[in-house]
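Study this:
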Amino acid sequence: MTERKGESFDRHMLEALVCPCTHNSLEFDAERQELISRAANLAFPIRDGIPVMLVDEARTLE
């Protein structure tokens, strides 16, 4: 697992998390520290190792 200073993410948590919009699975982007929902075209940030699964906080994918 790639970690940035002060950040870490338990990839096992990814198995339990789903997109709050589509309820589909998510992909982990280690470089950007985001969880990607291809179905919703959104990227949810991970801050201090905690996924922020709020649509208002998500970034729209290009």
Q: What stands out?
A: The first strand starts at residue 27 and ends at 29.
